[in-house]
Amino acid sequence: MGLRQFDIAFIEFAQEPLVRSNFKTSIIGIEIRDHIQKSKIKHIRLKELFFIVSGFAFKSSDYVQEGTPLIRIGDVDNDFDESNMVLLPEDYKEEYERYLLKENDIVVSLTGEGKLKADLVLCGNKYLLNQRVGALRIKTELNIKFYYFLINYLLFTKTQFYWWSNGKTQLNISPFDFLKIKVPLLSKIDQEKIVSKVEPVEQNIKKLKSKIKAHQEVINRVFAREFSFNLVRFEALKKVKIFDIDFSHYGNNKDLRKSVKFHRQAGQFVLDELKNHTSKKIKDFIAEPIVLGKGIFPAQYDNDNGEYYYLSMATIKNWKFEKENARLVTDKFASDNQNKTVQVNDILLARSGEGTIGKVAIINDKELNGIFADFTMRIRLKNYNSLFAYYYFRTEYFQYLVEINKKGLGNNTNIFPSQIQEFPLLDIEHKEQERIVFEIKTELDVQEKIKAKISQERNKIDEIIENAIKNS
Predict the structure, then answer these.
(1) CB–CB of 109/133 below 8 Å?
(2) 254 and 352 share a domain?
(3) Which residues are registered as beta bridge partners of 451?
(4) From 263-277, 367-381, 385-399, the region with the lowest mean pLDDT
(5) Same-domain status, 116 and 252
(6) Is 29 helix (H, G, I), strand (E, B) or coil?
(7) Tell me: the pLDDT tens digits for 432-468?
(8) Are strands 370-372 and 308-311 parallel, antiparallel or unpaired?
(9) What is the rounded average pLDDT of the residues 91-99?
């Protein structure tokens, strides 16, 4: 990995409010400042135009089958697709009126990977706002679409969002810092011209978005069809809160777990469905025992000279290994832990942390040098199509097995190799595995092409706005 090198005057560090001396806050900060200074257009902070409303930490136990949609972080930049939203009781609109979105609010993400996402509220008094999401609310009359386009599409705005974001494992931005983001101040006529040019492109983006299917949806649909999984029945059982079981049922759990989640009807249903198709378990196909990775100390990182990546949970949280989010380790750490390296077709499974536990990534780079972390486990299979296993591990059925078997409280939940190896593994001919893999991969490739087209259209909008600013 090449060394990132730059020159900076020491006094520049003092220009940054938190005196953070790294590339992100120093060099990018200078680039932001220079961009504004070179611009012929005056820039103002968002706080001069908007208030910001932060969301509330609603409890999952409050969710209902019918009611008021809740905007969570995953719902932002999704055109208010209510099919994936959770619902809260209707009377929450009155009880939590402060968090009720109004028409022309701009919903923005306040956490994630330093990537700004936004949506414009067209229908007021309909949605409640969850934690980690904010809503920009206008102070005075303005062209809301113009400012929404600046926030959602202009690269310069997104760069500032990234610069103001803080955090080691997850980047967050405070509502106070969000309002420090600067936007160009253009005349009303120029704003209207930009809106008229951007609107047709945004419509193309919305059409493309409507064609996107979540990877999870594609995988579930194919597996459900091939193995007659009754997902409708499964979803219905997941909603059952009260049920009776025999006292002897507790003895079926080797840890004698008595908590409700270890005995859910939906969990037993999943096991029965899988056992109808296989008597084999993951341990019947492993080339070597499933093992946990290696922990690391800060001094054992070496981003300048290291040759091995450290594959932490954070690097696989998006169902694939993301090299750009990984750090390099010292040569000594790598040489001392050659038994914790990865090779092509290995599957890594996150074994801890709510929101990440159970997520998997398959290693598909033959040239990758990597040491996997102690909060992940390596699954190395034999006589089995690893990509088929990877897709199977991503199904709702397998992920639910993780849900009902994980141990611990709050965010500190864990699952272990001794549990994972006992999970059922579908046993079908290799040709059938390859056929299913080909179908899923083909469909997922189509989805990626659509996303690439959306990215191109978003870049068009950025160019439209930037050119308009330069020519104003």
Answers:
(1) yes
(2) yes
(3) none
(4) 263-277
(5) no
(6) helix
(7) 999 999 999 999 999 999 999 999 999 999 999 999 9
(8) parallel
(9) 96
Q: Report whether 183 contacts 157 (CB < 8 A).
A: yes
In this structure, are 327 and 424 located in the same domain? Answer: yes
Query: What CATH number did the domain enclosing 402 receive?
Result: 3.90.220.20
- 413 and 342, same domain (yes or no): yes
Does 247 fall in a domain?
yes
Same domain, 256 and 124: no
Distance of CA 370 to the CA centre of its chain: 22
Q: Which tens digits make up the pLDDT trace of 226-236?
A: 999 999 999 99
Asked if residue 425 belongs to a domain, the reply is: yes
Range of the domain at 279: 216-434
Decide which of 12 and 183 is more confident: 183
296 shares its domain with 425: yes
Residue 236, token pair as written in the block: 């219905």
Give pairs for 451-458: CB < 8 Å, separation 24+: 451/212, 453/208, 454/205, 454/208, 454/209, 457/201, 457/204, 457/205, 457/208, 458/153, 458/205
pTM passes above 0.70? yes
DSSP code at position 291: E
Strands 133-138 and 50-54: antiparallel
Angle of helix 430-470 versus helix 155-164 axis, rounded to 10: 110
pLDDT of residue 390: 98
